[in-house]
Amino acid sequence: PQGDFGFPVAAIEAYKRLTLAGTLDTRTGEAIDPYDPDLQAYFSGDQTFYLEGFPRDDGPVTRFIFRMRLGWNSSFFNTIAYRVFLEPVSFVMARKTLLNIKRRAEVASA
User: Fold this and answer.
1) 8 Å CB contact between 46 and 69
2) Within 13 Å, how many C-alpha atoms sit on residue 100's CB side?
3) Distances (CA, A) of 28 to 22, 23, 72, 105, 106
4) Conformation bin of residue 105: beta by default, left when phi > 0, alpha when psi is -120 to 50
5) Dihedral, CA atoms, 70, 72, 78, 84, nearest 10 degrees?
6) Phi/psi of residue 91, each to 5°?
7) For 62-94, how does the pLDDT look when each residue is reduced to its tens digit (9 = 90+)?
8) Does 3 score more than 70 pLDDT?
9) Helix or strand holding residue 22 (H, E)
């Protein structure tokens, strides 16, 4: 609601692709440069929403592709925390996002 948490827009191509991405310092919660050679304690992720159109005999169709990648510095604690907690939560959030997009697209096309 405040707009102070989440991934910033990393790439956008009108009517085709939207990529949100970022890297956080897990000690401070601040955004950091993912290419910093001194990067030690971090969480990194990106989400890409991609639209691909296809012509068909009965009219054009659009395929919606979603991809999410996560990365973190490998330590025992981080690996357990992210594998056990973050990945399942990310799956649930991604599914909810996709279902909401589907619902909105179906309402808009009706």
Assistant:
1) yes
2) 6
3) 14, 12, 15, 38, 41
4) alpha
5) 10
6) -60, -45
7) 899 999 988 888 888 888 888 898 889 889 989
8) no
9) strand 17-25
